[in-house]
Structure formats: structure tokens, C-alpha cells
Amino acid sequence: MTDTAKAIFITGGGSGIGQATAKLFAARGWRVGLADVNTAGLAATAAMLPAGMVETYTMDVRDREAWVAHLDAFTATTGGRLDVLFNNAGIGTGGPIADMSFDDLDRVVAINLVGVLNGAKIGYPYLARTPGSCLLNTASASAIYGSSGLPVYSATKFGVRALTEALDGEWYGAGIKVRDLVPSFIDTPLLATPAGNSNYSIKQVVTNAGLELTNVDAVAQAAWDAVHGDKVHTYVGKTADRMAFAARWMPGSLRKRMRRGTIGSAQ
């Protein structure tokens, strides 16, 4: 592998969307940097990729010093280039805000929002030295209309969406594209999260309601399309498409749905 190969650094690379995206980009000749708190997950993902295409880093996105150290280490293997930074790491802790502990509330905000802000701010100089680079963030259909039962999660994903829009303008002059994925119900481990006060997981609630789950490989392809396209927001899954349509043309129906306590979406 030469230093001219394109390079992507993926947080949350040990499972789910991050893992699927790593497989797709590596299969298309990209060098991949994987970061995750889950060392076993990192090893499992790395084992799925072609030899010599991947570097792994055990990292918490809340740790700013680790961000710098690992981006330095990865770009040292790529000839200095970073074509895509994929801010994908997130957690799905949910439940009514009145029932959430402050520890859980702080953790969701710190990982899902501040972690993404860390990646953007720290990643900027690495992206700025690579022509045509892209910051890709994972938002959620919960960023289309706030999801009853997931208020803190929704708030963080609205923040990710707003950051994407703001940086799309702010970084335009630097030649850095900024995009996000807006997935609905993706079949990842995050759907094992309890749905509010229910004894059921979000996945069980979704399937019992007759809603579809989108295969994680479809999200990986959406990530590829987002990086190479011009849309700021890339909606993934039928539920996300329907919510985007309803938010624009039938906001009252979404409001009634949330008042019935229906889970809106989860990454």
C-alpha cells in the first residue's frame, strides 16, 4: 500500500455502522484507522479487513489528548493525508429525562455531542492539509423531530446535525466538505437499549410496531455516497425518509405520535 491511498479514520469502529463502513472503504482501496473503547471489537473489525489496510486505536472520544495522539499516529502511516474523518461513535442510552440519572445524562452528552465536537476541532488541521477531504458525522432521525423516550439522545443528535450545517458553511473556503448520515432504525447493538420505562428493547418496540430495520451495509454505502456527493444530510432507511417528509409537510402528525410515546428513531 502506497502513501497515495486515500485514508479514513472511523470512531466507533468496533461494531455496527463503523465496522460496516470500514469494510466497504477498505474493499475499495482505502487505508482505515479504527478507534473505539472496545478493544475486542477493534480486533474483530480489523480481522475482517485486508492485511496492511488498517490501524487500530483504543480511544474514548471524550479524551482530547488521545484524539491528537491517534490522529498523529494514523496520519504517520498515510503519508500525512486524512481524506475522511468519520465521527461515528455514540451511545443510545434513553428513557424519559425525569427518570435519567445525571451521570447517564452527562455521559450521553459527552460522548454523542462533545465527542463529535472534539473530532471536528481536533481533526480540522489534518483534514485541511488533504485536498477534497470530508468530515462525516453520524446523526439520527431523532435529529429530524425529537423522540419521546429519547430526549437527551435526540438533543445530542440535533446538535450533531446543527454542527454539520454550520461547518458546511464555515469550512467551505478551506475546501473541506462536511456531511452527516441521518439513519432511522439500523440493525446495530444500540437497538438493544431499553425503550424508556419499557421492559422491551428499542429493537423489540420497533419490530412490534411493524417498522423496518435497515441493514448496516446500507448505511456503509450511504456513508460512501455522502462523502462523494453534495448533500449535507443523507437520510438512511424508510422511517428516516418518512419522518423528513412529515416534519416538513405534516409536523402535527409527528407531534401527536410523540405524545403517544412512540419511539421516533435510534441509530
Automatic annotation (TrEMBL):
UniProt keyword list: Oxidoreductase
Domain Ketoreductase: 6-174
Pfam families recorded: adh_short (PF00106)
GO molecular function: oxidoreductase activity
Gene3D superfamilies: NAD(P)-binding Rossmann-like Domain (3.40.50.720)
Similarity annotation: Belongs to the short-chain dehydrogenases/reductases (SDR) family.
NCBIfam families: PRK08267.1
UniProt protein name: SDR family oxidoreductase
Organism listed in the record: Sphingomonas glacialis
